[in-house]
Structure formats: C-alpha cells, structure tokens
Fold:
Amino acid sequence: MTDLREWLASVEALGQLQRIAAPVDPDEELGAINYLVASREGAPALLFENPRGHPGCRVLSNSLGSSLDRLAVTYGLEPGLRPLELIAAARERVGRRQAPVEVDAAAAPVNATVRRGEDVDLTTLPAPKFWPLDGGRYIGTGTVVITRHPETGALNLGTYRQMLHGPREVGLYVSPGKDGLQHLQAAWRRGEPLPVAAVYGLHPLLMVVGSQSFGANTNEYDVAGGIQGAPVEVVRGEVTGLPIPAAAEIVVEGFVRPGDEHGEGPLGEFTGYYGRPAGAAPLIRVEALHLRAQPILTAAMAAEYPVCEQALFIALSRAARLWDDFDQLGVPGIRGVYAHPAAASGFGLVVVSLEQRYAGHAAQALAFAAQSPATAYYTKWIVAVDEDVDPSDLNQVLWAMCVRCHPMQDVEVLRQTWSTPLDPSQNDEALRPYGAKVLVNACRDQRPPGHTAPRALIGERTYRQVVERWDELGLAGPPPRPPALEPDAASPGRAAAPA
Ligand SMILES: Cc1cc2nc3c(=O)[nH]c(=O)nc-3n(C[C@H](O)[C@H](O)[C@H](O)COP(=O)(O)O)c2cc1C
Structure:
C-alpha cells in the first residue's frame, strides 16, 4: 500500500490517532505539544489539521513514536505483538525483496498539483521549528531523500534531515559515509550536479527503511516492497527522472550543484541534546514541488525516549539485525536480542539472551554483539543474560545484572570503539567519535563447583492450574507469563514458560 492515508485509517481504527483541529504554530508550539503528549509511552500519533499560517496543509508527528502497535501496522503485522515477537516477525519480512512498479504519472495522487520554477514556494508548507535553539525550520525530518549514484546507477532512499532556507532552497545534512553523501561526492568529483528528490509526506514504512543501512547496492524501495508484500508504486519525476512514490503527500525535485553549500543546524537530536553546531551543508535548489490535495507533512521529532520518533523502530531493527548476524555466523543458543529504545534511541544498550552451551559462550556472544556491524555504532552497554531472562524486560535484566554478575570477573571494557560526535558524554568534541563499551556477563556462573542454590520459581503444574482458574478467582487482565517455571517432579530440568 505505502499510502499514508490508508495507514492513518488503520491506526485511527486502533484508537491511536489524535486529530488536533485547533490552530497550532509550527514554530515551537507544535514541537512542545508533540514532546508533552509523546512523553507517555504508547501515546497516539498526532495529526495537526490546522497549522497556523499554512491553510490547506496538515502535519503528522509522532507517527510511530513509542507504539509497538503502530510499528506492527507499518510492517503489515497484526497489532498486539510483544517486543520479541515483533522483532522476530519483522526480521523475516526485512529479508524479502520486491521491486517497485512504475504507474501512470498523470493519475498519481502525488501529481495532483505540480508547481515548477518560480511558482515553488516551500515557505507555504508548515515546516516545524521543534526546539528553541534549532537553527531554523526543518522541512525534512520524517523524510526520505532519493538519489542515484552517477557511476554505478545504484538508487538510494536515505532519511537525512533538511533545513528550510528559502522558497526554493533546502539544506541537506548527510553524515560521512552514508550512501546519499557518497552519491553527492561522486557527482561533485565529476563536476556534475546531483539530482535529488526529497519526500516530505510519506508512509512511515519508507522512513523506517530509509533510516537503516542496507548496503550501497540495495534499493530501499525493494526492501519496502518486500516488507509489505507488494511493490511500491512510483512515478518518474519530471525534473530529475528519479522514481518518486506515487502516493506521497509532498515531494520536491531539484539539484545539488558542486560546492553549493549553506550554513545548517543545529537541531535537537535523539540524545536529548542539540547535535552538531551550525556548519556548512549542501544546498538543494528546488525546481519542482509535487503535492496531494490537503497534503500532510510528516514531521519526526528527535529527543530522548519515549518522545523520539525513531527510538522504537531503530531499537527493534538493530536487535533484529544482530539476531540475524548470530544466526548467519552459527553462534548457537541465542534465545533473543533486544536493544532498549530508552538507551539513546536503541543505540546505547544491547541485551542478548542465550542458553549457555559451553565455557566462554556468553563472552563470545558479548564480544560479537559489541562489534557486529548491526550494533557496533555508539553502543555502550552490552549485556548477556541466560535463557530464563526476557531481554526486553528491563526489570528482569537488572535483576540478572545484580544477582548473576560479579563485576570483578564479569565486566570488560573495550576502548577506542566506533561512536559519533553526537554523543554528548565527553566535553571534547574531537574525542567524541571514540567510544567505549562495557561488556556485562550477567549469566549464571557455570564454573565448578556448581550453583549454590536453585532459583525460586513457581511450579509448572500449579501455574497451569492458576491460569485455568484465573477468571474464577476474579483476577484482572491476562495471566502473566513468568520467564521460567519449576518443572513437574517427573520431568528433568527447568522449563521455559509456555508461550
Ligand atoms: C528521523 C531521522 C533523522 C535522521 N537524520 C539524519 C541526518 O540528518 N543525517 C544523516 O546522515 N542521517 C540521519 N539519520 C540516520 C540515517 O537515516 C541512517 O544513518 C541511514 O542508514 C541512512 O541511510 P543510508 O544508509 O542509505 O545512507 C536520521 C534517521 C532518522 C530516523
């Protein structure tokens, strides 16, 4: 589908869309409302139907936010999944590929209105200024930027922020090494402008795939098509020839000319701090603007969890990818992987649950999780827990860290590791890209002479009995599932809780 309006109808049916009809100023007020509402876990998506000073336009923010259900809907899954179930289901879908299809441009919703040249005025769009110290209004946050490598022809969709500079001028900030910047540098080396299409109103699935790195030769349209089980419908942009989503709300086409840069930033970031200070960034000179009727600008606020738009989906996708890496390398016994969204958008903490099968198994899992491409960036805390601990339940993880970890022997520190200038924990900016990682082995000590005492668990038979009597006993909600049970006397070993 990849149509934002169908997605909105689905989440509204779940009771997870809040429409705000009263006028709201995109200058700080919208950001403040987003911040306050989204501070509660699972808060609804917000559709601002009357952004002050921008008649005929709407703004959607907190589209995914901290809602597992809205993320499930975005992946085409049923709502109601628990974190590890969602990770496992999304993981399977992310591995599929389906190429986009080109549809009739004249009939495409994105071409309902097309403005060209001097008729383009992006200041009419309700681009928010989220934070008081942001460098300006950001038109591209819940966005993808579409580019093609001028030599290899590889197409990329990347979520890179864009600051509004004027009616037809947009700044584009892409971090070093990212695909969009590689395309730009290749074009500039040839002395050519880079054609760019930027989408400012989109189905969240495109933002989800645009904010993950799938390798230079993977077209994110193929990934999105694979996830939704149907091709993304595209039309050829009339100025750039780039494929743009046929059902997108707002798209611009333009060019980034060699050496054409402008001051950009700062912007409040996923760390809860402003990111890089103002600096030069490439400028998109816009030549065409495509709009649906009553277009919806998708805004993604960055902040600490649970406000941060990207925290949950980045955390879950990192976990899914690390789990895949373990499988591909044949590390056995992995029961679950979780990156907690509150840990700086899932970047800061990874928990691996495993069934220890040999001496050194937990240490191996820790070292690999610390340096796998999926999780090496930024991560500061890597924790290994046993199979009876749900890695997505912080209560259980903290319990394991406090009863199964002896810091004298179970903690290692890796130094000079991969991080980012966005990490505010060191005052010296030059040092910030050099991170450090703590590896915490919170698994049972398996060395002789053996455990001092068994863990206290409720019995399997009794658990089943109580579950059967749950309603009769007048107990509220569904019965919880403990992570492990004491098996019936006849069966040896400890039992995992029934699913
Ligand atoms: C809301 C949001 C905003 C982002 N802003 C930027 C940005 O301004 N610059 C950047 O390089 N990456 C940004 N990212 C991260 C990139 O999307 C991510 O690194 C992705 O892998 C880039 O795509 P690529 O691997 O195809 O280059 C952002 C991600 C999200 C979810």
